[in-house]
Amino acid sequence: MTMTRFECDDLAKQFWPHGDSLDGTQVHAVVDAARDPRIFPMLVRTGLEQCCLFAGSLTPDLRRAAPYLVHLAMASEFKREFLRSGWGQSWGIMAMAPADVTLQQLRRHFRTLLRVRDQSGRFLLFRFYDPRVLHGYLPTCKPAELKRLFGPVRAFAHDAPGGGAPIRHELRGALSGLRPAEGPRLSSLAGTADDSPQEPVPSSANRSDQVASDALLFRHAQRKSLSHRMVQQFEQRMVGHIGRYFPRQARFIGQAAVNAAVLLAIERAQMRGYRTARQICMYLSLMFLLGSFFDEDPQYPWAAHADAALDAQEPTARISRIFASTMIYLDEVHGARNTLLIRAFLRVRPMAGARREQLLIVRDEASAHAFLSACCPTKAARQPHATADLWGRAVALARQHGWREEADRAILLVHAFLLGAGVHRDPQFPWANETLRDAVSGREMLTGLADFVHAVLKKEA
What are the strands, taking DSSP E only, across 213-318? Predict the structure, then answer.
């Protein structure tokens, strides 16, 4: 999200109600340069008072990925860019402190938070300056831990994913707990393994001047709670991704089905070795493009999870290659704006209201291939050897559910062909599973397919 100038001005007034006065509360930012390649050059250009939280001589790469403490001025270009481009993107947190607290005093305090100790005695790098981490960690703290965390800071504030009103954290009287700011409390979102609050400690952060033996204790319960919160937040982030990029499908299948698909995507992606937010997000998108079990579908051999050449690749390269191949395939097979796919669905839709004698009969692999070729010629021609596999699955599934009519096998076949080989267990197509469970024939499944075409695809034609 990029904020407008007017939105930036409104937000700035909340943090600097009295302008750039040096007598009142001072606003600082702890910025994570690793979040965006634009941040470090902005820090180099700005004339604001700043310092790196890591000590010692840093390598160029570490300098560009380190956390920095910046004394923000209301009229500064850095402040405008931080709010305009970074708000909603988790670039860092804001810390409000009294005017008599210097930048170096704040730095010394924040450096005591960089490294925490778990109950087994292991030291971990604590990315408290990540808004998603701070927002999840604070509710788990005891009063003494809050006192240690805040130190000379009066309040912390940060963004919510996508922007919006700031989330502000203050201490109540006698340090008995947190006092939220007035206004809406917004949930933050997090990534997965690549956004973890615990990371290996860099050598520059592992110096004796940084952390004494009384390093902040990171309790098992806190770690478990924070991990659970961040997993939930990541799931919400993926649900939002589907709502944004597949809005019609999300509205048609409903929130429960979207949630189920997201959980399935995370589980299957991790089984395939995908761990980062980007990798899982790409995997989820592929599920909504090809069907939830696309990497087991004979129609998409380039995505097969058992492919030795793919397994040998680094996960990001692997999923990127699969995604690129899928985009080429969809352009060739579905046509511009899904024109060819929509035609295929429209050819099938009349089957829902046809009389028994009007239904196309599919008896064997040859007639199955002819049927699918008539339905969507470009798709059937792309992977002709997949027809036999899809036909065998349709026959076995019909037998399993007691569907004995030849037309029922044709209905199962066309669903697998158009929506994916695992359509009968795919949370994206709940009507298919419900029909198999409750109906005595496949006619109701065709009705669900017709509704899907009308709600999701027909408007694109």
Answer: 217-218
pLDDT at 195 over 60: no
Structure tokens of 322? 């699969």
Tell me if the pTM is above 0.70: no
- pLDDT for 297 equals 94
Q: Where are the domains of the chain?
A: 5-225, 231-333, 348-460
**CA gap 422, 394 in Å, rounded:** 11
Residues 6+ apart with CB under 8 A from 274: 280, 283, 315, 319
Q: Is 166 left (phi over 0), alpha (psi -120 to 50) or beta?
A: beta
Beta bridge mates, 70 = 29, 50
Residues 50, 43: Cα–Cα separation, whole Å: 8
Count the Cβ atoms, other than its own, within 10 Å of residue 395: 18
Question: What is 46-85 written as a DSSP string?
Answer: --S-EEESS-SPPPHHHHTTSEEEEE--TT-HHHHHHHHH
pLDDT in tens, 324-369: 999 999 998 888 877 877 787 777 766 655 555 445 567 888 888 8
C-alpha separations of 224 from 70, 197, 218, 219 in Å: 32, 12, 10, 9
